[in-house]
Amino acid sequence: MELSQKKKTKSESDFPVSSFIYSEFGNAYRNKQGEPRFNRNDFRFTNQADIFRMEKKNVGVYRSAFSYNLTDPYESDVFGSFYMDFDKAGDIQAAREDALFVIWKMQLRTSFNLPAEAFRIYFSGKKGFHVVIPWKYMGVFPSPFLHEYYRLIAEDLRSGDSELDTLDMSVYEKRRLFRLENSQHQETGLYKIPLTLGQLSSLSVEQIERLAKQNFLIQYPKPIMQPKAHDKFMEYIKRYEEGLERKYRPYHPEPLGYVPESIQDLMDNGPIEGQRNNTMAVLTAFWRDEGLEYNEVYDTIKGWAYPDLSGPNRISESEIKATVRSLYYSNKHYSRKTVEQYAKEANDYIESIVGKQNKEE
Predict the structure, then answer these.
(1) Rounded Cα gap, residues 208 and 205, in angstroms
(2) What is the pTM of this model?
């Protein structure tokens, strides 16, 4: 896929939020033998979350962190709020301290300059805390790469003054599921409950767990976009796109101006059963890098394949076209060592055939 196809215009109007109406739901449970199981791939309208809760008795219920404008999340753009997951088995206190540190860090003027009310904090119901910042505060808009932008933000927050080993970096993916707020954990029986910043900082872990024996809601103020937070978000988009450009920047080696012995051997030996596709690809890449136009490369490879254009093991012209087109317009290159290995295998094969024929004679 070309880079121009991967990048999107950075305009919220190009991605109407109202079209992101689908979510993936999942359910954790135990089977009749008491073994833990997890079902997912339940795609439905996001506004059907309460129906899903009732179906599963509000126990072990999950929803995707992102919403989608298509029912296929891999083809869809994604949209959702920035989220973080702090957890550490056996050390909830460490997760709490890391969450507080990151919240403090994101309030700094030199960082996102977010107000305290921007942070939606949740006790997960078992071993950690989730922190969510509603998308409006950062001026977030949908993108196929929103999870990648969020990963860059989390990486920066995780490094620097202190390594936050409880901040889970594996959660930044298109199909990450998170436990639904005020749902019950299938193992502990505790609820995923919202907490104020004051409660997170002042309550003991035991007090938080006692609160989580029942569910409740917190009334939050309406989110308002913070200019500094939006500017920071746009900086991460730029960083990601610059990295994408470097990754997909075409590499054009200088033409050799001559045909190496290994390439000549591959040309002379013609198509060899079991090696035809690999050799075709190597030769296509070589002649392309030597500056031949597509049609010239195709004619060259077709001439090389001439012995196998008919017969029981024939190469079809459509197969040649598909291989040449794929390699010619790719950024695929072959090292000298690889080409020499293919040539050696071809030479060994030819020598074995010639030796067998001489022996029979």
Answers:
(1) 5
(2) 0.67
